[in-house]
Design brief:
mainly beta; globular
């Protein structure tokens, strides 16, 4: 399942040493589509499809990716500097049942080709 992303918010959780310590929540045109949970001090759980109300309604199915906190800086830098983005998660079973369905793999990806050498040039960095 794929979801396009148009905006995001970042949450850092205070006083948490293990488990979910940060999240990036994604929207597509003001509708929540999924999130990345960043974990520290624990084994990563499976990523999953979350469909709390209706597994048959794709607009009410959200993607939840699990990543180590070590990836947080890289992920937030990428989403700030590149676009457009999408989330993808592959369910382990079909049909989807209950409030969640385990995933076996997923990704955050750009939805358009990037030109080689497109990196922004910072003229200010060259000045003494």
């Amino acid at each position: 399942m794929q979801k396009s992303i148009t905006s995001y918010t970042v949450q850092l959780l205070s006083s948490v040493k293990t488990g979910i310590i940060a999240q990036v929540l994604f929207k597509n045109n003001q509708s929540f589509v999924g999130r990345i949970d960043f974990y520290a001090g624990v084994d990563l759980p499976k990523s999953y499809l979350w469909h709390p109300n209706n597994a048959a309604d794709e607009s009410q199915t959200y993607l939840v990716l699990a990543m180590p906190f070590d990836a947080f800086g890289s992920i937030t830098e990428l989403i700030r500097n590149e676009r457009p983005w999408g989330l993808e998660l592959w369910p382990s079973s079909t049909p989807m049942k209950g409030a969640t369905t385990d995933g076996y793999g997923g990704k955050l990806y750009t939805t358009a080709d990037e030109a080689i050498g497109e990196q922004e040039f910072d003229l200010q960095a060259l000045r003494p």
